[in-house]
Amino acid sequence: MKRMGTAVMTDSGLMAKVMRSEACQQCGGCQMGQRQEQFYPLPAGQYRPGDPVVIDIPDEGTLPATVLGYGIPLAGLLVGLGIAALLSLPEILQALIALAGAAAGYAVLKALEPKVKANRRFQMKIEGCPRAAERNSDIH
């Protein structure tokens, strides 16, 4: 999945500013869905403010990220509900234990976050600057 952005100068330096798409707005599962615009650092010397930037989100990471993001909390909820149902607890306690299981699933997800972020399969890639060839020809 590719997203178009623009190189902009910020207090943190030159960044790629990428606007949220309609699909991201409806989902809200990742960083792109939580904010109207997202900023990513750009390699030094390759871009100027106003340059177009292409951010590539690898397709092979989309399904596993979805399974992690939704599957682990759902599994926690179902395990909590199953345990409470097996113990024949009142429905209100079953619901509370199911919610506790979902919260435990989110805690597991949070614990896995550094490992997932370090995995290249889930990382966005900034593709080459479209104007880099022009700049190289100006130098020679």
Give the gist of this structure.
This protein has 2 domains: 1-57, no CATH class; 59-123, no CATH class. It is 51% helix and 20% strand. It has 5 helices and 5 strands.
Describe it.
It contains five helices and five strands. The chain has a five-stranded antiparallel beta sheet, with no helix packed on it. Residues 135-140 have low confidence and may be disordered. Helix 3 (62-86) runs antiparallel to helix 4. The chain folds into two domains: 1-57, no CATH class; 59-123, no CATH class. Strand 1 (2-10) and strand 2 (13-19) form a beta hairpin. It is α+β, with helices and mostly antiparallel strands and 140 residues long. Helices cover 51% and strands 20% of the residues.
Produce the secondary structure layout.
Blueprint lengths: L1 E9 L2 E7 L2 H6 L3 H4 L2 E5 L10 E5 L5 H25 L4 H28 L6 E2 L5 H8 L1
Antiparallel strand pairs: 1-2, 1-4, 2-3, 4-5
Global outline: elongated
* End-to-end gap: 35 Å
Report the structural category. Answer: alpha+beta
User: What is the string of helix and strand elements?
Assistant: EEHHEEHHEH
Give unreliable regions as ranges.
Answer: 135-140
Rounded to an integer, what's the Rg over CA atoms? 21 Å
- Largest sheet data: 5 strands, antiparallel
Strand order of the largest sheet: 3-2-1-4-5
Oligomeric state of the chains? Answer: single chain
